[in-house]
């Protein structure tokens, strides 16, 4: 499953499931992101041009909660704008762009455009902290809204083009 357009590729082998690893020779610097005390279950990236320095990056965690018998997933999206040394560890990493809302909106819009979304709604004031720094020391800012995307049941999801 690809979260949006067909140009997103799996970034790594997930904790659960059978997605493959990135194509040979395509390793990417990555910051460990934790939610529920563990790394993400799924991660995808969409390269920008031919450079490994910039990419749209989305991660998903499956929660233990369910709604209407369906699992709830949480996601986080960032735009990796450049490669450099982490401000906190000194390791090579991608540095994110500070406007995390732009990537949140992009994912919600692409899911709608791909006709995978049954419903999209917003929760205002979800995040009380509107700016800060990530684990790598990069600044971020948000308007505090949470995008909720209810995906269509698998049988209702359009099939990907087999280009």
Largest sheet: 5 strands, antiparallel
Tally the beta strands.
11
- Radius of gyration based on Cα positions: 16 Å
Strand order of the largest sheet: 1-4-5-6-7
Give the N-to-C terminal Cα separation.
16 Å
| Proportion of strand residues | 35-45%
- Overall morphology: globular
Number of helices: 1
Mean pLDDT: 79
Helix content: under 10%
The structural class is: mainly beta
Low-confidence stretches: 12-31
How many domains, as an integer? 1
Order of helical and strand elements: EEEEEEEHEEEE
Detailed description of the structure:
With 163 residues, this protein is mostly beta strands. It has one domain (9-156). The chain contains one helix and eleven strands. The strands form four sheets. Strands 1-4-5-6-7 form a five-stranded antiparallel β-sheet, covered by helices on one side. A two-stranded antiparallel ribbon has the order 2-3. A hairpin with a 2-residue loop joins β2 and β3 (38-39). The longest helix has 14 residues, at 100-113.
Features:
1 helix; two-stranded antiparallel sheet; 163 residues; mainly beta
How is this fold's topology laid out?
Elements: E1 9-10, E2 34-35, E3 38-39, E4 42-48, E5 51-67, E6 70-85, E7 92-96, H1 100-113, E8 117-123, E9 131-133, E10 139-141, E11 146-151
Antiparallel strand pairs: 1-4, 2-3, 4-5, 5-6, 6-7, 8-11, 9-10
Put the structure in a nutshell.
The protein is mainly beta. The protein is built from 1 helix and 11 strands. Strands 1-4-5-6-7 form a 5-stranded antiparallel beta sheet, covered by helices on one side. A two-stranded antiparallel ribbon has the order 2-3.
């Amino acid at each position: 499953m690809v979260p949006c357009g067909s140009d997103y590729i799996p970034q790594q082998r997930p904790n659960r499931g059978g997605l493959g690893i990135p194509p040979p020779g395509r390793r990417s610097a990555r910051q460990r992101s934790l939610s529920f005390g563990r790394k993400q279950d799924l991660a995808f990236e969409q390269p920008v041009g031919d450079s490994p320095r910039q990419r749209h990056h989305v991660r998903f965690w499956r929660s233990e909660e369910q709604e209407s018998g369906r699992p709830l997933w949480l996601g986080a999206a960032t735009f990796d704008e450049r490669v450099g040394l982490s401000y906190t560890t000194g390791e090579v990493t991608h540095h994110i762009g500070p406007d995390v809302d732009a990537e949140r909106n992009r994912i919600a819009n692409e899911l709608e455009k791909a006709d995978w979304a049954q419903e999209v709604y917003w929760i205002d004031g979800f995040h009380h902290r509107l700016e800060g720094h990530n684990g790598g020391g990069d600044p971020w800012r948000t308007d505090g809204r949470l995008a909720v995307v209810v995906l269509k049941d698998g049988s209702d999801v359009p099939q990907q083009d087999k280009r």
